[in-house]
Write a structure and sequence with these properties.
heterodimer; A: alpha+beta; six-stranded antiparallel β-sheet; five-stranded parallel β-sheet; 26% strand; elongated; B: alpha+beta; four-stranded mixed β-sheet; globular
Chain lengths: 375, 86
């Protein structure tokens, strides 16, 4: 399936910056998708390398193929370059303006205009905003599929428009000030789709950036290589501030023994085929080890933010991960000899490899800050 | 005389689960009504028997102080009945 809008985001490790771009390609079908994807990728990569906006824009314009009928090469874009300190820089070219919400209300930022010569013929105008973000600010970037949704209908003959969208978002923020970025984006897309009576006339995309304090999460999996480190594992697990999950029977036994806690092992099977989760005071979730993290890795690889992911232990960890930002994976490297039994009906992976894969996916696909510690 | 009670601990570790333990987790559903009150079925994190290289194979279940290896619903039921002197 292809879409004429392309969204890309990248977090740059070590620089504490996140870059978000949304591009809408001219026309429809594969051509629009190629234009949009090309534009979004170039925008991300050039911005990452701190190229000037003018140069980025020029290169994008001269790279895109020229449309035969209209004699233009064209894809709109919005690039947001956000530092974790709060400095934001947003460049817009022909997309609907981004919306900034502070304390639940939309506020306007003064934009400076600059133009880029293209093909020696015409000037292309772009807008640049540069401003410091405040805690809990939200930036909403959407394609024209959102603002023009509902066009021609009796209730909104000129489409949803910026005003309609602003009122919708303000209403959501009033009733639910803590709404997550992905939930808000999902609501906006669904509303736009409803404006078009569920038959969208254009690609509808929306990206939401929520500037907030990072949420922390810990996953402990696997017994330490050296028994003497059991205490270290328990110490980290007990003092960690944030969501805490243990994946592994032996691991949970160690933590329970060291911290003198009781584990209440569940026996309720569900349709996921995974061993059931257990309960331990002070921990948000205690699950089986290798099968559950294997399923989790599979989910992280295949799913996207908005897919429904169902229930079960792996889905529960997935949901917690999505809602967290700073994730610590504490991986015990002792090999479980019993897992090498050739009569096992499935092949069990080596834990540290699965955890490495999870770390990579969380960093690259979900833009999480991940630290992996082997013990 | 007070009826004897039996504690059944089913290992929910990965190895046991894969080797047939998943079915044992539903053990309480197989219990006849007249025995249900005397038997408590609980799950357990890995009991550690799979590491002992003594030839015993999973799934493991503990019935009071007895260890049952290669447990099936039927042999578990038999052992439980034996414990209850039935």
């Amino acid at each position: 399936m292809v879409c004429g809008d392309a969204f890309q985001s990248r977090k740059i490790k070590g620089e504490d910056r996140a870059i978000v771009t949304l591009s809408d390609g001219l026309g429809s079908g594969i051509k629009a998708n190629v234009l949009a994807t090309l534009t979004a990728s170039m925008a991300v990569n050039f911005t990452m390398q701190k190229q000037s906006i003018e140069r980025t824009a020029k290169i994008i314009m001269s790279t895109l193929p020229v449309d035969k009928q209209r004699q233009i090469s064209y894809a709109t874009f919005t690039i947001a370059d956000i530092e974790s300190g709060g400095e934001a820089r947003i460049i817009e070219f022909d997309n609907p303006p981004y919306l900034l919400f502070r304390k639940g209300k939309r506020i306007e930022i003064e934009k400076s205009k600059f133009s880029v010569k293209w093909n020696g013929k015409q000037d292309r105008h772009m807008l640049l905003s540069q401003f410091p973000l405040e805690l809990d600010d939200r930036i909403i970037i959407s394609s024209d599929g959102v603002t023009q949704s509902g066009i021609g209908s009796a209730s909104m003959p000129f489409g949803y428009g910026e005003d309609g969208l602003t009122a919708f978002i303000e209403k959501i923020l009033e009733s639910n000030p803590d709404v997550s970025a992905n939930k808000l984006a999902e609501k906006i897309v669904k509303k736009s789709c409803a404006n078009d009576v569920y038959k969208p006339k254009d690609d509808i995309s929306c990206a939401v950036v929520h500037f907030r304090k990072p949420r922390k999460m810990l996953i402990c999996s696997g017994p330490p290589y050296d028994d003497a480190k059991d205490k270290v594992l328990a110490q980290i697990a007990s003092t960690f501030q944030g969501k805490k999950v243990i994946c592994g029977g032996t691991t949970s036994n160690i933590v329970a023994r060291e911290l003198n806690l009781e584990i209440d092992v569940g026996l309720e099977l569900d349709d996921t085929g995974l061993p059931p989760a257990s309960k331990m005071p002070g921990f948000d979730l205690v699950t089986e080890g290798i099968l559950t993290i294997g399923r989790l890795a599979e989910m992280l690889e295949k799913q996207s933010y908005t897919d429904s992911i169902g229930t079960g232990p792996a889905a529960d960890i997935f949901k917690m991960l999505i809602a967290s930002d700073d994730i610590l994976l504490l991986v015990g490297t002792k090999i479980n000899i019993a897992h090498q039994d050739p009569s096992l009906p499935v092949e069990l992976e080596i834990r540290r490899n699965v955890m490495r894969k999870i770390a990579k996916l969380l960093e690259e696909k979900y833009l999480k800050e991940v630290e992996i510690q082997f013990i | 005389m007070e009826a004897k009670s039996v504690l059944v601990k089913i290992c929910a570790g990965t190895h046991c689960y894969l080797m047939g333990g998943s079915e044992l987790q539903l053990f309480s559903e197989y219990l006849p009504d007249n025995l249900k009150n005397n038997i408590r079925v609980v799950g357990s994190a890995c009991l550690g028997f799979c590491d002992a290289q003594d030839g015993c194979k999973p799934p493991f279940v503990m019935v009071n102080d007895h260890i049952l290896h290669q447990a099936t619903v039927q042999c578990l039921l038999d052992l439980v009945k034996k414990e209850l002197n039935l």
